[in-house]
Amino acid sequence: MRRTLTMAMVAMALGAGPARSQTPTDVRLDISSGEGRRIRIHCESLQPGGDRVAGTWSVQADEVLAHDLDWSAVFLVSKAWAGGSPPMDVQAVVGGKLTVNGSQVRLNGEVRDLPARRPILLREYRGPVTDWRSLVHAFADDIVLQFSGEPGVARTRIAFIAQNGRNKELYTMDYDGARLAPLTADQSIALSPAWSPEGSLILFTSYRGGTGPRLFVTSSTAGRPFLVSGRPGLNTSGSYSPDGREILCTLSQDGNSEIYVLDARGGSPQRLTNQRSIDTSPAWSPTGREIAFTSDRTGTPQVHLMDREGGNVRRLTYDADYTDSPAWSPKGDRIAFVARTGGGFDIYTCRPDGTDTRLIVSGGANENPRWSPDGRHLVFSSNRGGARGLFVSDLDGTPPRKLETGGLISLSPAWSPRPASGGSALRVTEGSPTPGGHP
Amino acid sequence: MRGAVLGSGVAHVALLLILASARMATSVMIPGPETVQVALVDPTPLAPPPVPKVETPPPEPKLTEVKPLDDTGVRLPPPAPKKKKVAPPPQETPPAPEPAPPALPSAKLGSAGLKGDIAVDARDFEFTYYLVLVRNRIAANWAPPAGMIAQGNRVRAVVAFRIGRGGALSAVRMEQASGMEFFDRSALRAVVLSDPLPPLPLGFTASELGIHFGFDWEAP
């Protein structure tokens, strides 16, 4: 009457304890830090169905899904179509079916354990064929959720600035570089984009109109920019508060750069800093209660923190002669910043109390770090490897990967929030578990 | 000069070989088909699983920089029946469970002698990958209390909780207190911080899964 599980782990059953209600099965597992370990997952090709074009789509979908899982920083991916048998320690296999019928596409995604192939996740995704990437990304996000307790970021987008000669225009693209879309064509200079908390708007600085840098807002999908703040002097580095009701920015209407909070329409300015020094690059904490910013009040530019009202200012960084560009992680546990070390600019993170500083990226000039909405990645601009471009670090010691942005010279990225679950053309149906392979 | 370079090269190659072999050795411990044994129904204790003989990995150094990718999975030191003087034949052992069986596979977390175990309330829960995820999450959230060294030589607390289909925790309670309040609090905090856990696998059809998570500390 003894059954052995061949799939799972190093576990040993030691029988029922008398104190436990339903004769629990004891599974003994060691405690050791599980952080930073990727889960091995094996991707099998999606089976094409329906129209003949499904064969072409499914091959592309295979690669998009494998990229999503790899880039989630949760999985170590092997691919069946790359040849070879799955590694011995694979914990789950991903596959399914991709069916195209006219203008509609259906993805029946499956995740199963090995070797028993019991279902872990079975889900059906339907949508217009033009949106097949979103179906694959949604499946990838669900797989990440299934193994990490938190959905992935495969359906997010990244806004950035593309340089063409003297012009800098605002663009957005999928988080993996696909579906590139220009948002401005002003033949002017756009700078420092920032998403609204629900992802529908992008705030940015622009020299359009020729009267110096002003703050504008535009729809994140299309449309024309609206002026938010055109006060005398600089109007730069705007960002929405976590509740979307306020805008943090740098204005120089009173002589030098100071940090202000405006309402979401750009009115009722409240000045938070009052210094002869230059205060700039403000960033909200995810609670909206604190603000990180750069100030040279101590002689060199350094990242400081203050309360939302401008009080309780304290210096965050001490170890470099120049730090800038703070970005607070979505969970609030870390702050990323740029530090000048020697000739280059490196990216570090530390806790909000200034401890536990970790080097994330070095070599060349690495700038403008911005967090992914799950806090597992940082996107940044860099000149590593020649032309200026965008890179993503998974924060786990693996080398940063370059985002292909259609050959554009790209800088100043900003990662979108996750899309809202509703309001999409995507329809999702939960699968039902098939009978297990055991009596 | 050339000799020094050559010597350094040889030393590096040797080091790489040692590292590579150590890596291969640990990869044997990665969950694979042969290493698993879970008795799900019969409460008779099993013999220790036929785990390849491997060395206990050294305590991980305290990290000050980004943690390198480590895909070694769960570490399984050889099950060492430390306190059991006579190992009874598995088939004849009556189901006489001990509250804290001494033959736990154990691994050290940092320098402290921390161990843990998981028990589930379901006879048909066959997804051990899920328990590993639970273990990893809770272990990552467990900040062992400082000052344990001075206190006794063995401490154990068990926290019970239930996981809903979507991964949300409920009914978190202290099932077995250690008698040291700050240790119990650290265990409870580790569980509460891990909410929500990953959703339950589809193939497990019950509406929730009961977990008993044991936190052990042993004097080094």
UniProtKB/TrEMBL annotation, chain B:
Subcellular location, record wording: Membrane
Membrane topology designation: Single-pass membrane protein
Region of interest (Disordered), ranges: 47-108
Compositionally skewed regions (Pro residues) per UniProt: 47-61, 87-104
GO BP of this protein: transmembrane transport
A Pfam family reported for this protein in Swiss-Prot or TrEMBL: TonB_2
GO cellular component, one term: membrane
Main location: membrane
Xref: InterPro entries: TonB/TolA_C (IPR006260), TonB_C (IPR037682)
Positions of the TonB C-terminal domain: 129-220
Residue ranges with Basic and acidic residues bias: 62-73
Alphabetical keyword list: Membrane, Transmembrane, Transmembrane helix
Annotated NCBIfam families: tonB_Cterm (TIGR01352)
Name assigned to this protein: TonB C-terminal domain-containing protein
Organism: Eiseniibacteriota bacterium
Taxonomic path: Bacteria, Candidatus Eiseniibacteriota
